Structures are given as structure tokens and as C-alpha cells.
Amino acid sequence: SNVEKSIRALVDADLVDRTLPQIAKRYNEEQLLMGTVPDTETKFLVSKAGVLSENEYYEPNTNSVVFFDHIKKTAISRREPTEGEATHPSAASYRSLTNGLLEEYVTNFYPSAVGTTYAAVDESGTITITALITATKAQLSSKWSGRIRSEYSASFKPGDQSTTFEGGVSIKVHYFEEGNVQLNTSAKTSTSVPTSSADEFATAFVGAIEAFEHSFHKNLESEFSDLSENTFKQLRRKLPLNQNKFDFENWAQYEIGSELSKQ
Predict the structure, then answer these.
(1) Neighbouring residues of 125: CB distance < 8 A, sequence distance ≥ 6
(2) What is the pLDDT of residue 263?
(3) Model's pTM, two decimal places?
(4) 3-state secondary structure of 136
(5) Under 8 Å between Cβ of 54 and 65
(6) Local confidence band at 235 (pLDDT 50, 70, 90 cut-offs)
(7) End-to-end distance of the chain based on CA atoms, in angstroms?
(8) Kind of pairing, strands 144-156 and 127-139?
(9) Distances from the Cα of 28 to the Cαs of 35, 47, 207, in angstroms?
């Protein structure tokens, strides 16, 4: 990539070779990068929830282990999982039912998004269900890109009647035509969900995601409406009316400059 070429022009090659794969891995996992399982049309997520080794990730919907190149950002190969890598039988119904409802929700509300549910079981028998959602839209010719990421989880033991559901959503939008404007916002949630049966758990788990994210988007739309109707209008009243460009190097000469200096 152009970024890699620029780094290699500035930094010692041995240092780049040692550190770049680790940096790329961390970034790809944090951003929930999407890939395609080789020989299929199934999308999968590069995430900490599915990581097995430095370059291998478990994809539960195809029951595959995918080898992923973090520098090229592409899946190279896949293999069958070992018994310890695949979804544990005690968590299988919780994962599959939750994933079915999650995919339905994602399909209805997030075009081109990927939603995947993972299940892990520790030595004590505690089951952890993790749901991830990510969607990216970019139109580089128009100088903008955006990504939304969501992560939710709940842990419980068989026989428990309820547990805590927690997680959050984050959005980053970048507009870079003749400038650099970014939106970074996030929100978290926590509530109780039943665990007495896989059906009940899946319905409550995905229902909590839907209710939280609908509220999040509604609040975001309200804030942007206020930004357009009030904040920007208030700002315009302080801008020059002579249609001349603002001289940022000599900003103190303006009335707004003196007002800001007093604050």
C-alpha cells in the first residue's frame, strides 16, 4: 500500500519488518476489518473474539479457521478447526440462535454490514456470547469515508437465570475535501438478560442491541439537527460580513479575536 511504501522510505527496513505486522494486526482487530472466507462468499470479521493465533481466526458460521494476511488485508487460506477451536457444544445453541436473530437485525438496518456471534467456554464452564457488527462506507472520489462498529457480550453458567448484557457502539466519519473534518462518537449500554433457555436469551440479547442502537441513532440525528439549525447559525453571526477570507495568521485584529483572547 502507499502507507507501507511511505513508512519504508522513512524507517529502517528491519524495524518495519519486525513491527508492521503487529501494528497492522492490532489495527485490523480494533477496526473489525471484514474479509471473505476463501472458496466461499461468506464475510468474516478480523476480531479478538475469533483470534486463535497471530494470523488465524475462527469463523463460526462456516466452522472454518481462516489464515489472514494483516499487511495485504486479505484471507489467504482456510482449514477445518480442531476440537478445541470450534464452538463448544454447551454453547452451540446459544450462539446459533443469537446469530440468526443478529443477522436478521443487521440485514434490516445496516446495508452491507456484517454481524457475527461468537461463543467461548472457559475451564469453569462459563459461557461468553459475543456479538460484533461492523459496516464501512467510503466514497473517496467525494473525499469521505465512515465506519460503524458494535460489540456486545454476556457471560453466564448453565443453570443461571439471568446475566448482565453490556457493550457499545462507535462511529467514525472522515471528510477530507480541502480540510480534515472528523466525527468520532460512541456510547455504551448495560442491562440484564435472561439465560434460562437459548431461545429466551437470544431474543433478549438481540432485542437489547436493537433498542440501544435505535436510541443511539435517534439521539445522534437529533444532535445533528440542532447542529445545523442552531450551532452553525450562531457561529455565522461571528464571521466576517465583508466576504473576505479570514486571516488566520493575524486573527487578533478581528473583534472575535479580542473576544477569544479574554476567555
Answers:
(1) 90, 157, 158
(2) 57
(3) 0.83
(4) strand
(5) no
(6) low
(7) 45
(8) antiparallel
(9) 11, 8, 28
